[in-house]
Structure formats: C-alpha cells, structure tokens
Write the structure tokens for this entry.
Amino acid sequence: DTPCLSELRIVLLGNRRAGKSSAGNTILGREEFDLKRSAQCVKRHGEAADRHITVIEAPGWWRNYTVEESAELLKQDILLSVSLCPPGPHAVLLIIRVDITFKEKERKGLLGHLDLLGERVWSHTIVLFTGGDSLLDTSIEQHIESEGQDLQWLLDK
C-alpha cells in the first residue's frame, strides 16, 4: 500500500569514467547526457512509468584520489548536486565499474567524497554496477565475493 511517487529525483555519483552518463541515459531512455567527461553538474529531466524523473550527474573524482587530493571546485559540485533537486534526491546512485578492482584506496576515496554529503547520504544510496558484460560467465554475486572485504564493506554500508 505504498503510494507511488509521481516524481523521482536521482543523483549519480562515482569516479571518472564509471559510467554515470550512460546510467543517466538508460534511466531516461534516451541520450540526454554527453558521454564525454563532465566538469560540472548536469541536470536532465524525463518521463518514465508515468513519473517525472530528474537526474543529476555530479562530476567524478579521479579513482585513486582521496577527498583531500580532489579539487575544491569538485567538492563544491558534489555538494551542489543534491541541492539541484529540491528538497533533495530520493536516491543517490553510486556508480561502480566491475572491471576495475575495488580495494582500500578506492574505498577511502569513495567514502571521503560521499561524506561531503553527510552521514544521511547512506540511507539514500544504491550501488549500481556498470561494465557487467566484462564479467562474462561470472555472476555479480561471485564477483562481489571475489573482490573481498572492501567491496563488501561498501555494500554493507
């Protein structure tokens, strides 16, 4: 008996080249996001399943960078991304490529960048894996298990 939302607000976060633009295009069902690297937040709208959908793509951070190593402008844009869909996003899609190993350095970088948005961000965060075709005959569950504790930590979080 949960009421259906007539509007859905989504923020796409992740490191550079994670597939945020492709994910946004898939959600909206058309090419709205340029597949080249975005240096600032990009906001697009669409309709799907009788819902108005707002998708904000935040610029990505370099994969091996901690939040302290990232440019101040990037940190400001990550903060801006959630304010571009008032009163805030329903979901933060954290885009993770499966064809790149996720270890402690990536975990620390990701945690630092998401922490910019406060602890409450985790209650709205959904992990979206991209590049699944590279897994071939491996299931996503097998991949997660093979990656070890850092990726498992992220999913538990």
